[in-house]
Amino acid sequence: MKLTFKLSVAAVALGAAFAGSAMADTKAAMMAMGRDATPAEVKAWDIDVRPDFKGLPKGSGSVAKGEELWESKCASCHGGFGESNEVFTPLIGGTTKDDIKTGRVKGLEEGKSIVPQKTTLMKVATVSTLFDYINRAMPWNAPKSLSTDEVYSVLAYLLSLADVVPADHVLSDQNMADAQKRMPNRNGMTYFEPLWKVNGKGDVKNVACMKDCPTDAKITSALPDYAKDAQGNTAEQNRTIGPVRGLDTSKPAPAK
Ligand code: HEC
After folding, report:
1. For the chain: N or C, fewer Cβ within 10 A?
2. 160-169, pLDDT tens digit by residue?
3. Higher-confidence residue: 144 or 205?
4. For ligand 1, what atom is nearest to the CA of residue 154?
């Protein structure tokens, strides 16, 4: 008995030592991979713009310049006035002068929307988010191709369409805070505590459909052919479980 006990203790100790050194080996191997990012690389990634405007690059752009850019680089997907519902839900519309005064979009109240779709300007509370998003992600088919001043320009144009800034405005890092004071839904953010807790209850009220459920989804928007594979093949980026399959964007769309 005594002997067996001693042996098994030794085996455990040996096992632990083995596992320990294997882990150390793996760690060493991981450390040997790649290299530290250079300061220039970190700087290139570090482009976020915060609601307090930390990270906002210096620059400016006029509504007039923005309109030109919009026509050539954005309108094909979002419509001439940011109102298109073809490729993505509309960016502009559904906000009123009153909303600009109160900072709360009335049309967001249940069932009271004055446009059929909730638009970006109805929802977004911070103008910094728009700058950040356009700067990093748009145009969809050529992200990060706009210069800083061009981002200011198209943003100025969008804000002018929503009456946040006048048509002769020049938007800049110096006056962006004034635009923020006129964002129609600037007071629309709420803190919903349960969502911040692991065991909190969600805010979804819909009941899952269990019988006579619709089977065919109606496709209401699609990317234009020239931009379909701008983000790679979506079929390869979707999970293989669940109901949703990504469209194979490596191929041209099937003829209707
Ligand atoms: C090839 C089509 C295409 C072009 C061109 C394009 N966009 Fe977009 N845009 C999209 C799509 C698709 C989305 C939604 C992306 C997503 O949700 O991942 C989007 C989203 C946006 C949003 C965010 C809306 C929201 O509520 O989240 C903004 C703002 C925007 N685009 C601005 C622009 C600007 C400015 C330009 C021109 C510089 C531009 N877009 C050009 C397709 C396009």
Report:
1. C
2. 999 999 999 9
3. 144
4. 35
